[in-house]
Amino acid sequence: MAVKRKRKNIRKFKAVAFKLTVQQKKRVDAFCKKYNTTPVTMYKIAIQTFLSKNGYGTLPKQHDHGISSNQMSIFDVVEEP
């Protein structure tokens, strides 16, 4: 009998474009050459670092629903008269 394979999740990517001045491009190229990386990788790491430092890397805290005093518990024993 054949084994069923798990289907991979499909990642979706969006294209982003922005302009750099000549001086900024030179700085990016120098940084990439010094640290042996590509500009795209450097941009991704910079964006990820920025987002994690500004609170976008964590999920928002979910509200904890407390139990009110009128709420019955399923473990309460009901005594029959």
Helicity level: 25-40%
Note the total helix count. Answer: 2
Strand segment count: 0
- Calculate Rg over CA atoms: 27 Å
Q: Residue ranges: pLDDT <50 for 5 or more in a row?
A: none
| Average pLDDT | 83
Spell out the helices and strands N to C: HH
| Strand-pairing-aware structural class | mainly alpha
Task: Tell the overall outline.
Answer: elongated
| Span of the ends, CA to CA | 60 Å
Q: Which sheet architecture does the biggest sheet show?
A: none
Approximate strand percentage: under 5%
Walk me through the structure:
The chain has a domain at 22-53. By secondary structure, the protein is mainly alpha-helical. It is elongated. It is built from 2 helices and no strands.
How are the secondary structure elements laid out?
Elements: H1 22-35, H2 39-53
Describe the structure concisely for a colleague.
This protein is 36% helix and 0% strand.
Give short descriptive properties of this protein.
2 helices; single chain; 81 residues; elongated; mainly alpha; 0% strand
